[in-house]
Design brief:
By secondary structure, this protein is α/β, with parallel strands linked by helices. The protein contains 16 helices and 19 strands. Strands 16-17-15-18-14-12-19 form a seven-stranded mixed beta sheet. Helix 4 packs across helix 11, helix 6 packs across helix 8 and helix 7 packs across helix 8. The radius of gyration is 22 Å and the shape is globular. The N and C termini lie far apart (about 55 Å). The relative contact order is 0.12. The structure holds fe (ii) ion. Fe (ii) ion binds next to helix 4.
């Protein structure tokens, strides 16, 4: 049975296709339309996904009429119907938080787990706790709108001049530069415990008066501290009421890599699907309809550029210019570039961080993440778990040796990599390690700030002409003319 999962009409539309538990495709609408956080799926995405098979069923990630009842006063909501010549295919919709829970549980290795979903808002639910046992998912606890971890975080994102629902990750990065104590009490008053908020954050936060540049960093630090405290209270409660030792964490809040690290203090094992936000819910809806565990192998599930991993070219570029760009194979499903649509660079050079920020037209304070060979991860970072999808921020143990991938507070958002997860990128790291003694490269997404990751050959060619770099072999790029930029 082939199931097409769809998520659209809110932010981060996506489509996924599964067949008898195998994930054939999962991709984001924004990569095709080039419109960041695109609300709708488009012809090119549908064309791409249908190459892998015609669906017998369509699974939709929300209950449209239930959501419509909440949106009634604001108008504009209605039933969802498939377009793209799929109108005859039978369809079923699932609740927003159930789709999140299914995306997490059915891609995990756990038969037995607690599933926590924290996001801005689904239909009404904003924070839910489920139990996953023997392929069944049952609701144990819920909090409804307007109480919301996600809306809390987004409202402060907006307060400090960033884009809510999109730039929360920038605020998280800014937290490392702020004094969390300065505004902690004031922020804490809005969210005094894990089930109480004194404010409807959907309306935005007002009456803070003039906010200076330094205030923005201090507020970011306080919000991150309050969020982490409340999230951990919620997670302890989830453990208490379910008695489970394995955690599946989903929803947009699960993208908060700084807070996520604390989860390992209270759970034996943690699984966060690499696309835990709404963009992951097309796969969640498909999994919910299938109702059993999926065969999760890797996040390389999107558009296929083909080609072999250009290991030699990457090494050549890194030796010569210290920075290369790679676009090859299947695109990553999720917000992180994990080697197939990546800029890779030598982390030992302290100037590399600024250079890559310039290329990507990002704020200079923004940190970069390291990809490290899994076998050496604990020598370089304070971690007793693996982080194959860059979901945890941990203390760097040798910051002087890799200054370009260490944040102001001495931490790094680590991607651990073993040979099975990505043989090509592992080989690049292995060669770099043999040459330098450092089993680590800087790894960041191949895009410009605010734009989606490069996806297809058209994007590759556009970048090629814009930056005047060469495509070395077929559609693989290992770009080493990047230094022309400065
Ligand atoms: Fe959500």
């Amino acid at each position: 049975m082939i199931i097409l999962g769809i998520n659209e009409t809110s932010h981060d539309a996506s489509a996924s296709l599964i067949k008898d538990g195998k994930i054939l495709f999962a991709g984001h609408a924004e990569r095709y339309s080039k419109e960041k956080n695109d609300w709708y799926i488009n012809d090119n995405l549908i064309k791409d996904v249908l190459q892998y098979g015609r669906p017998d069923y369509i699974a939709y990630y929300e209950k449209p009429m239930l959501k419509a009842s909440r949106l009634l006063l604001r108008g504009g909501a209605g039933d969802w119907k498939p377009r793209f010549d799929l109108s005859g295919v039978p369809r079923k919709s699932f609740k927003h938080h159930y789709s999140h829970a299914a995306a997490g549980y059915y891609t995990s290795k756990f038969d037995d787990a607690v599933i926590v979903v924290l996001d801005a808002i689904g239909e009404y639910n904003t924070s839910t706790i489920w139990v996953g046992e023997d392929n069944n998912i049952k609701l144990k606890h819920k909090e409804n709108y307007p109480f919301s971890f996600g809306l809390f975080y987004s409202a402060f994102t907006k307060l400090i001049g960033l884009m809510p629902n999109q730039e929360e990750y920038i605020m998280m990065g800014m937290a490392a530069y702020g004094d969390w104590k300065k505004y902690y009490k004031k922020v804490d008053n809005y969210f005094p415990n894990y089930h109480t908020q004194s404010y409807n954050f959907h309306r935005g936060i007002r009456d803070w008066g003039l906010i200076t540049e330094q205030d923005k960093f201090d507020i970011a630090a306080a919000v991150q501290a309050v969020y982490t405290t409340r999230m951990m209270e919620f997670m302890r409660m989830a453990k208490l009421i379910t008695g489970k030792k394995n955690l599946v964490f989903m929803g947009g809040c699960a993208l908060n890599s700084s807070a996520n690290t604390s989860l390992w203090k209270i759970y034996d094992s943690v699984w966060i699907m690499p696309n835990p936000g709404d963009a992951g819910s097309s796969l969640g809806a498909a999994a919910a309809l299938y109702g059993k565990h999926l065969d999760w192998q890797s996040p390389y599930l999107g558009h296929d550029l083909g080609g072999e991993y250009p290991v030699d070219k990457i090494m050549e570029g890194i030796r010569k210019d210290k920075i290369v760009a790679v676009a090859t194979g299947r695109a990553e499903y999720g917000p992180r570039a994990l080697g197939n649509r990546s800029i890779l660079a030598d982390p030992r050079d302290p100037l590399i961080k600024d250079k890559v920020n310039l290329i990507k037209q990002r704020e200079l304070f923004r940190p970069f993440a390291p990809v490290v060979m899994e076998e050496y991860a604990d020598q370089w970072f304070d971690m007793k778990f693996t982080s194959p999808y860059m979901q945890y921020t941990v203390k760097c143990l040798q910051p002087d040796k890799i200054p370009s991938v260490v944040h102001a507070d001495g931490t790094s958002r680590v991607q651990t990599l073993n040979k099975q997860q990505h043989p090509g990128l592992w080989e690049v790291l292995n060669r770099f390690y043999k040459e330098t003694g450092v089993p680590i490269l800087l790894n960041t997404s191949l895009n410009i700030k605010g734009q989606p990751l490069l996806n297809d050959i058209i994007d590759v060619e556009r970048w090629e002409s814009y930056y005047n770099f060469k495509i070395y072999s077929g559609v693989n790029i290992a770009w080493n003319n990047i230094l022309k930029l400065w």
